[in-house]
Specification:
The protein is 43% helix and 18% strand. The protein is α+β, with helices and mostly antiparallel strands. It folds into two domains: 202 residues, 2-Layer Sandwich (Cytochrome Bc1 Complex, Chain A, domain 1); 181 residues, Cytochrome Bc1 Complex, Chain A, domain 1 (2-Layer Sandwich), CATH 3.30.830. The strands form two sheets. The protein has a six-stranded mixed β-sheet with strand order 1-2-6-3-5-4, sandwiched between helices. It is globular and about 60 Å long.
Length: 429
């Protein structure tokens, strides 16, 4: 499942280090989540429910470009002042854009948090979008697009996404096409920001080594005055349909062939199925002893790399298996993968393998949920994409409750040969 690392168990294996997070919804609609977590830092994150899926085709790339422009200052915060302030206190800041959200964060020592957090809020809510900086940063974004297009693996995965999410906004590249980004204007970006950066689409998360009341007394006053004139628009999402199955080949500048098999699967609105697909991905290809990794890499030596992931968005997901191998091994590798998928559909997972799966999920949670940034990522992600953190909090417990018969049924329903897209990238002759 696509989500930040770290999940809070609600079982005997819970961290038991802190009280549950405090959640407030301000009168203007902003959601604020705060939690004290012992350590040496405070992470402050702003999550906006705005990503590439909210763009039109002639705006594709706007959300990512806007993420860049937020850090270019405004009439109150000069260009570079925020980054210099963060660096002076040994902190760090960054941002990311996805199909479904944009995420800004800053991590500092607890004593520096009250001075730095209001600056980030000001930049995100009131970006300057000065024309000169806009044109200068456009070149940076265009270079990022060019670098991405120069990477064979990125070209391959964009083709996989365009097939798996055909007809859905998820198929759009987050960076956008260069020809679209080249014609975006500050005025259009200002309208886009006003349309989508509204209070009810914002989640502010603060986790770190301060009392919750101290965290809130910094964050809430920054966000309370924020108002918008118009309600946020309703994002009308097309009804997902099962796309046509494709079997195609690409030729590119690679030394070894790349194979990606993918299946359209339910999204996060069918959370129990998503958890089952996550578990099947782990059984097949996550870890040295997983079925495909062990046979294809360590027993047969046919592949140099293998990845199995269940990519989950709200409205639809994509289960995919990626392989890097000498081109002569691709047919045999494909057949072995088909055999393992058939086994999942016809044979129950052994009790000892299921028990190992549950322990691995719990261990992954424990080791990935230790820092304020990881915990804030969990809360911000689930609140932003689902409007509720409870599913994320209970994720390991949900996986732990899965029965072998449920996993078999999910494999029978979704991981079928007749639902599979196959894309091969071969080296040039």
């Amino acid at each position: 499942m696509f989500a930040p690392a770290g999940f809070l168990l609600q079982s005997d294996e819970s961290l038991a280090l802190t009280q549950p997070p405090t959640i407030q919804v301000l009168p203007n609609g902003v959601t604020v989540i705060a939690q004290r977590l012992p350590g040496a830092t405070v992470n402050f994150s702003l999550w906006v429910g705005c990503g590439s899926q909210h763009e039109t085709d002639d705006q594709n790339g706007m959300a990512h470009f806007l993420e860049h422009m937020v850090f270019k200052g405004n009439d109150r915060i000069p260009l570079g002042h925020f980054e210099q302030r963060v660096e002076r206190v040994g902190g760090m800041t960054n941002a990311a854009t996805s199909q479904e959200y944009t995420h800004f964060f800053v991590t500092t020592a607890p004593q520096d948090f009250p001075d730095v957090a209001p600056l980030l809020v000001d930049l995100v809510l009131r970006p300057g979008l000065a024309a000169e900086e806009f044109d200068r940063e456009r070149q940076v974004v265009l270079e990022e697009i060019r670098r991405a297009q120069d990477m064979p693996q990125r070209r391959l995965m964009q083709r996989v996404l365009s097939l798996g999410f055909a007809g859905l906004p998820y198929a759009r590249p987050v960076l956008g096409p260069a020809e679209v980004v080249a014609q975006l204007t500050p005025e259009a970006m200002r309208r886009f920001h006003q349309q989508w950066y509204s209070p009810e689409r914002l989640t502010a998360v603060v986790v770190g080594d301060l009392a919750v009341e101290n965290l809130l007394e910094v964050v809430v006053p920054c966000l309370t005055p924020w108002r918008t004139h118009d309600p946020a628009p309703q994002c009308v999402f097309p009804t997902p349909v099962c796309p046509l199955v494709h079997d195609e080949e690409m030729v590119d500048d690679v030394e070894q062939a790349r194979l990606v098999l993918s299946w359209p699967v339910p999204g996060l609105t069918d959370f129990s199925t998503v958890c089952a697909l996550d578990a099947l991905a782990m059984v097949l290809g996550q870890g040295r002893t997983s079925r495909l990794v062990w046979e294809l890499r360590y027993e047969r030596g046919w592949v140099t790399g293998i990845t199995v992931q269940n990519m989950s968005f709200v409205h639809q997901g994509l289960f995919w298996i990626g392989v890097q191998a000498p081109v002569q091994h691709i047919p045999a590798v494909t057949e072995v993968i088909r055999e393992h998928l058939a086994r999942l559909a016809t044979e129950l997972i052994r009790p000892e393998e299921l028990a190992l799966l549950r322990r691995r999920v719990a261990s992954r949670f424990i080791f990935a949920n230790e820092t304020p940034a990881e915990r804030a990522g969990l809360y911000g992600y689930y609140q932003t994409v689902l409007g509720d953190i409870s599913l994320g909090l209970g994720y390991p417990g949900t996986v732990a409750s899965l029965q072998a018969s449920v996993l078999q049924q999910v494999a029978q329903t979704y991981l079928l040969p007749e639902r599979m897209n196959r894309v091969v990238m071969r080296p040039r002759a």
